[in-house]
Structures are given as structure tokens and as C-alpha cells.
Amino acid sequence: MTPTPPADAAGPTELTLSRAINAGLRRALESDPHVMLMGEDIGRLGGVFRVTDGLAKDFGEDRVMDTPLAESGILGTAVGLALRGYRPVCEIQFDGFVYPAFDQIVSQVAKLRFRSEGALAMPIVVRIPYGGGIGAVEHHSESPEAYFVHTPGLRVVSPSTPEDAYWMVQQAIASDDPVVFLEPKRRYWDKGPVHTAGTQPPHPLFAGRLVRDGTEVLLVGYGPTVRTCLDAAEAVAEDGRSAAVLDLRSLSPLDWPLLVEVTRRVGRVVVAHEAHRALGVGAEVAARLTEECFYALEAPVLRVTGYDTPYPPSRMEDLWLPDVDRVLDAVDDALAW
Predict the structure, then answer these.
(1) Closest by CA position to 64, among listed 33, 95, 102, 85
(2) CATH topology of 13-194 equal to that of 209-336?
(3) Residue 240 burial by CB count (10 A; 0-12/13-18/19+): exposed, middle or buried?
(4) Do residues 150 and 284 lie in contact, with contact meaning Cβ atoms separated by under 8 Å?
């Protein structure tokens, strides 16, 4: 793998999203000796997606640890390390492999800080590559975010750009609350500018971001669907209409003040995510915006999502995943209401 280039003092460095996470992890390891990385094949191999490439060589196997194929054991060990003052970062190799660790995450990681009235910190980051679009089967292409968003005590975030990936992984590691860090795997190879020489993150960890302004419809996405929404907004503009795009970035907590402010101004909302439709993040966004913005809405809040079936064979995933055409169909429905 090509090493991360040094930051250019004259401007940002161009990185893929995966290399931006690598650079963020490197900076966290350099800044705090209590940061440790744990996961299956993350050391010598550098992870399935090579996100941790080179870190074990530079920081040693005591800090970048290859673990057995036992997700429950990874998270159980992380709980003990966190109680001893470490800041473990646990990689789950694929989204569908997280379920053996679900008991540890929900029963222990999410509850210990609350149960101890804040006396015990749980500075654990659970990195999960998630979502489809890489030609893989179930257990390698799932979107399990709703399980964790529904669990009090967990923070859940997902970057959509290399810049966000670089800063958000460092912010997550610095948090004393446990953070589920969802990495959109089909965006791992997307490139973008990253300000690696800075010292302050450009945005708070748990804040959304309006990435494109507009006046007629608001497209809401996170992780892999932000780019889909931006492409749809470009197509809308070619038809002489105006679409805003909001990147949620944080799923728990959601940035309700920003969502409400833009919704009241625009009046129509379409939410896009890869996860199943039923009881997904989009359902919560739709319900709460309806409660708080009822008289400002010009149409129902619409959702463009995966279907309520198990993830399909790879040949069919393009039909299953939300794409620009499906988002545009929802925009047409919202504008025609």
C-alpha cells in the first residue's frame, strides 16, 4: 500500500476515505499512548480493506493487535481495557459479523457509564464497515445501524467524505461515551481533500451538515447515500428545480435543530438510506419532523431505502440499493403533492 503522504502546508492532502481513516487512527495513536486498535487481521495484513495498513509496523503489536475470530471476545476485552483507562478501537471485519458481539455492546458497553452515574467511562470505538455496493453477499453488505441507534448509551456516527472520516474517527476515540463508527465501505475509494495539518475539527462530532443549499426539497442522507443525494440534486438542478442536501453525520444523537430549521424553510423532505425501510433511521426522521414541522410541510416526508428482505445476491444488489433514479422519483412525488 502507498503510505499516507505528508500534509501540504499550502493546502489539504488528497486522500481516499479509507486512507483518511488510517491517517486519523495514526494521529490518535501518536497523540495518546492509551489508544489501542484491536480486530481480526488488522495488524500484519492491515485489515480486509487495508484501513489499518502500516500501523502495526509503526506502533507495534501491543497497540495494533490481531485478535482471534471472536467478536464477543474482542468487545469483552475492550470493556476490561476501557475500565483500566485505555481507549480501545475495535474493528468488526464486516457489518454482518457484529452480531456475536451484540450482547456485549448492548448489555455492557452501552450501559456501564449510565449504571455507574458517570464514574466509569466507556471510551470504546466500534468500527464497522457497512452497506452494500461491493459485489458481496449477505453478512458482508448489511446496514445494521438501527439496532445501535435504538440502544440508549451508544453514540452512532457515519462519515461520508474523507475529511469527515479523518476528523470524526479522532473525535470518536476522544469521547468518553462508546461510539459505533460506521464506515461506508463502497465509499472507501472515493477521494477528497483532507486538512491533516489542522488541530481543530471543522465540525462537532454529533452535528449534521448542510452540504448543498436549496429551496424546494431537502434530501437527507448519511454515509453512502450522501453522494447519491448530491447526484440527485444535480439532476434536479438540470430540470430547473432546487434541492438541498443534508448529511446527518451523527445518527445518535440526531441533529434535530438543523433538521427542523431546514425542513421549516424548504417544506419537503426525502430521506435516503441503504438499510431496510421498516423502523429504520428514515422512519424516525419522518415521524419527528411530522411532529415538529407539521404546519410547514408541503408534502409527507418520503423515504428511499433498501427493501424489507435479506440482502440479495450480488447480481441483484443494484436493484435493491437506493439509487439516483429512485431518489428522483421520490422528489417528483414530493413536488407534485
Answers:
(1) 33
(2) yes
(3) exposed
(4) no
Pairing of strands 217-221, 269-276: parallel
Q: Which CATH number fits domain 13-194: 3.30.565.10, 3.30.830.10, 2.60.120.200, 3.40.50.970?
A: 3.40.50.970
Please report, for the chain, the start and end positions of each structural domain, with discontinuous segments joined by +: 13-194, 209-336
How far is 84 from 87, CA to CA, in rounded Å? 9
| CA-to-CA separations, 88 to 123, 138, 166, 228, 336, in angstroms, rounded | 7, 28, 17, 33, 50
DSSP letter string, 54-122: THHHHH-TTTEEE--S-HHHHHHHHHHHHHTT-EEEEEPSSGGG-GGGHHHIIIIITTHHHHTTTSS--
256-266 vs 281-293: helix axis angle to the nearest 10? 60
Active site residue 140: yes
Coil vs helix vs strand at 267:
coil
Q: E strands along the chain, which residues?
A: 13-16, 35-39, 64-66, 87-91, 125-130, 155-157, 179-184, 191-194, 209-212, 217-221, 243-247, 250-252, 269-276, 302-306
CATH topology assigned to domain 209-336:
Rossmann fold (3.40.50)
Q: Phi-psi bin for 50: left (phi > 0), alpha (psi -120 to 50), beta?
A: left
pLDDT, tens digit (0-9, with 9 covering 90-100), for 65-87: 999 999 999 999 999 999 999 99
- Single pTM value for the model: 0.95
pLDDT in tens, 105-161: 999 999 999 999 999 999 999 999 999 999 998 899 999 999 999 999 999 999 999
Angle among Cα 33, 36, 41 to the nearest 5 degrees reads 145
Catalytic site residue from 34, 139, 140, 273: 140
Residues in the chain: 337
